Please model this.
Amino acid sequence: HFKHEEQLMEKYGYDTYREHKSIHVDFVNQVLKVQKDIQNGRVTVSTDLMEFLKEWLLKHIMGTDKEYAKFFNQKGIR
Model:
């Protein structure tokens, strides 16, 4: 999902492409850290973790991603 978004943003010159990509990179790094912590027994999957993931994805999709929808629509991308 992230890679596809980023490719379209770069291809069509979305003005905050770098910032948006940075948000994706930060999120992926956070998830990878949590995954490693779970594998090493430092963290367990909890409702707090699931709530964090749900909130982040909802805020990102319903917030940040909505910002570029109009831009993409103007470029003929649906």
